[in-house]
Amino acid sequence: MSIIQRIKRKTEVLKDKYFPLKEFDAATLPWIDKPNPDIAGFLKKNPPRYDVPYDMADKLRSWEQNGYVVLEKIIPEAMIDKFWGDFQELVNNPDKYDLSVRIDLDEFKPNQERNIKDFPKKALQGKYVKINDFHNSSVAGKKLMTHPYIVSFLEAIFNQKVVVMQSLVFMYGSQQPSHQDYPWVTAKIPSHLAAAWIALEDIKIDSGPLYYYIGSHKMPKFNFGSGILFKPDSTKSPLEFADYLDKKGPEMNYPKETLLIKKGDVLIWHSALAHGGSMITNPDQTRKSFVCHYSTEQALPFHRNFPAQVPVKQDYNGIAIYNNPIFPQSEDVLK
């Protein structure tokens, strides 16, 4: 990083500290989030690069109004099975791989996030497990998260070069309290964030399915006491944030909906859509899913954990994927 870039980065950090965001910056909002977006006009000038099997205009209207879209039956079963095969190889042979994993069980406190080698194999195949950035190890994961029909929609909402920010693999439901993504999954521009929830199996009601408040991406932002982003000096907790969302959603007449989609369907949601994981009523029922977060090259020109480094990147269907600098030996080991 050059001296000028270092100064610019330090200025950004100081600005964030002393003048924290209270709302998304109107100047850098994606076009679709600005008042009265001209969807027809946009698509006339910017048709999708791929021939998608859904009505793009209809999906963009849904996104603008509701804060999410469901793309039905867009992922071939063979792609999913190949990816899940890689995942099974990983958890059955953890000693062969280097990867960051988090298991939210008391027995692993205070260090619940570790290299996969440092967890018992049995725990890796159980509940409360988050496999971080498995796409870096799995070529099938890279192909899945950059499927042309996902790429097309992301390019439409951002109208910029899209980059992969992170990914998570779940075997079971998370039971995570209500939250929005932007306070934690942060780039230089918080509004330049979207997520995809790729169903790796048919989702059952007793598995702790995802829920969300329809239209909640338009609700007033929560102030953590340090602005809209959660930081070490925040005076409000994630549970207070969840309580705010669960009260504000019904108060503003945002209906709560449970996601019961099929294998090969994809939910894409807005960074400010309030969502969470329902209670698991059948502890044996899995909820296999691949959750991917995306940003833009403008907002995230570096690997999220290494802002001072020039990233090593690969291109899949026009989306940039940054190699993981922590485990360079694990990049694309599963092909």
Task: Give an overview in words.
The chain is of the alpha+beta class and 335 residues long. It has a single domain (3-330), classed as Sandwich (Jelly Rolls). It has eight helices and 13 strands. Strands 1-9-6-11-5-4-2-3 form an eight-stranded antiparallel sheet. Strands 8-7-10 form a three-stranded antiparallel sheet, with no helix packed on it. Its cofactor is Fe(2+). Keywords: Dioxygenase, Oxidoreductase. This is Phytanoyl-CoA dioxygenase family protein. It holds the Pfam family PhyH.
Any key phrases for this structure?
eight-stranded antiparallel beta sheet, Jelly Rolls, 2-oxoglutarate-dependent dioxygenase activity, iron ion binding, 335 residues, 13 strands, oxidoreductase, 8 helices, Phytyl_CoA_dOase-like
Provide the spatial order of strands within the biggest beta sheet: 1-9-6-11-5-4-2-3
Q: Can you identify the CATH class?
A: Mainly Beta
Q: pLDDT average, as an integer?
A: 94
As for the number of domains, it is 1
The CATH topology is given as Jelly Rolls
Q: Residue ranges: pLDDT <50 for 5 or more in a row? A: none
Give the strand tally. Answer: 13
Shape: globular
- SSE sequence, one letter per element: HHHEHEEHEHHEEEHEEEEEE
The named CATH superfamily: q2cbj1_9rhob like domain
List the helices and strands and how they pair.
Elements lengths: L2 H16 L20 H7 L10 H11 L1 E4 L5 H16 L7 E4 L9 E3 L5 H4 L4 E4 L6 H7 L2 H11 L3 E9 L23 E6 L10 E4 L24 H14 L4 E3 L7 E5 L4 E3 L11 E8 L16 E4 L2 E4 L13
